[in-house]
Amino acid sequence: ISNGGGAVLRAAELEGDWLDAVVAGEPNVLAQGHGARDLYDYSTEAALLMPCALPALGLPAAPGADARCAALAAQGMLSGADLKAQQQDALAKLHASGWTDPALRAGSISVGFDLWRAVGVGYASAYGRYAPDAHPCGFRYSALGVDLSPRAATDVERASWWADASGIPPGAGVGIVDPNPAADLGLKGLQCLRRLWTGDSADAQRVRGGIAETRAGLPRAGLPVIVLHGTDDGLVPQAFSSAPYVAMAQAAGRDVRYWQVRNAQHFDAFLGFPQYGAVYLPLLPYVYEALDRVDAHLDGKGALPVDAVIATVPRAGKPLATDNLAMPR
Predict the structure, then answer these.
(1) Residues pairing with 140 in the sheet
(2) What's the chain's Rg over C-alpha atoms?
(3) Catalytic residue among 2, 79, 142, 160
(4) Which of 8, 115, 152, 237 is an S-S bond match for 103, by CB 3.0 to 4.6 Å?
(5) Residue 308 parent element (H or E)
(6) pLDDT at site 316
(7) Are 41 and 245 in contact (CB under 8 A)?
(8) Do β-strands 150-151 and 225-230 pair in parallel, antiparallel, or remain unpaired?
(9) Which residues, in sequence order, are bridge partners of residue 114?
(10) How far apart are CA 97 and CA 150, in angstroms?
(11) Cα(89)–Cα(94) distance, rounded to whole angstroms?
(12) ∠ CA 30-34-38 to the nearest 5 degrees?
């Protein structure tokens, strides 16, 4: 799933008989074709515009979002004479670049957890292969004190990272240190991250060069592949990732099946929050079902799934039931 889903689709390109089939859930994959966008591209775009756009969808404004709207308007990045018009312009810009309203609503989770900036900071380092102390925008990671100032991590904290950390700070006591003053509202750093995609500096070319190396090719001919994605995914929207990949592979005659799951987003773990659990359904049951069906097919006991858009039923606060999942048969 997620980065692992993208990785297994890349592995599917390799020749040989070491893979019998592939199941990829909500894959972070960069394909060829209409709508395909890299995570770094749309995450740095979202970091700048999404906090301002969400109120235009009727969602609560994140802390500091109104001030960011005004600052972006003052810099000419947004149009509008007042806050409401600026919010509408931010939404229009995201719509124009391919964001759907369901993806934006689920993307509010990433706004609330500062995940867009976290992705931009970490992935810029990874794609550009920078040393830990050489981030192109001056960011770094550190344990933080109660006043949020950098400090040395303790041995106990370091030992816990393997179990508690996601690998992408902030989290598990590790924070992102922004070299810019707090009064900047974080915009200077976010704009630097965005320019690594849109600009032409040596650093931008280095980051984009790393991204280009991740672009997916076709899976091996004859290899069964099942791709699953939530239609409401707000972190890795299907319009930018799995949909272009499936279209590319199917147009080339590859054996790729596609399940699109209504009312499913990227983070099953967040469904423990009542407001999310009432609206969204988990994606993992469909991944497990697809694995079972592939296993049965390989054993000669069943057929591979066919393409399906799965019309689920939100549980509205009630316990999860079979009828909610509407598993295709």
Answers:
(1) 177
(2) 21
(3) 2
(4) 237
(5) strand 308-310
(6) 85
(7) no
(8) unpaired
(9) none
(10) 37
(11) 9
(12) 25
In terms of DSSP bridges, do strands 22-25 and 150-151 run parallel, antiparallel, or are they unpaired? unpaired
How far apart (Å, rounded) are the C-alpha atoms in residues 228 and 257?
9
The amino acid occupying position 9 is: L
Q: How far apart are CA 94 and CA 104, in angstroms?
A: 9
Measured N-to-C along each axis, helices 39-53 and 115-128 cross at an angle, to the nearest 10 degrees, of 160
Six token digits for residue 281: 């359904």
Model pLDDT for residues 271-294, shown as the tens digit of each residue: 998 889 999 999 999 999 999 999
User: Taking 90 as the threshold, does the pLDDT of residue 214 lie above it?
Assistant: yes
- How many residues does the structure list for the chain? 329
329 or 172, higher pLDDT? 172
Q: pTM score, two decimals?
A: 0.94
- Give the whole-angstrom CA distance, residue 292 versus residue 160: 34
Find out whether 294 and 21 touch, Cβ atoms under 8 Å. Answer: yes
Res 318: pLDDT: 87
Give the CA count within 13 Å in the CB-facing half-sphere of 110: 29
DSSP-derived 3-state class of residue 212: helix
For residues 205 and 172, is the Cβ–Cβ distance under 8 A? no
Of 172 and 134, more confident = 134
Cα four-point dihedral sign 287, 289, 290, 296: positive
Q: CA distances (Å), 163 to each of 56, 94, 145, 157, 170, in order?
A: 39, 36, 21, 10, 15
2 catalytic? Reply is yes
Distance, C-alpha 168 to centroid of its chain? 13
CA atoms of 138 and 17, how far apart (whole Å):
45
Whether the predicted pLDDT of 221 surpasses 90:
yes
Sign of CA dihedral 256, 267, 198, 6: negative
Report the pLDDT averaged over residues 24-43.
97
Find the DSSP H helices in the chain.
3-11, 39-53, 65-74, 83-96, 101-112, 115-128, 155-164, 187-198, 202-212, 242-251, 274-277, 284-298, 322-325
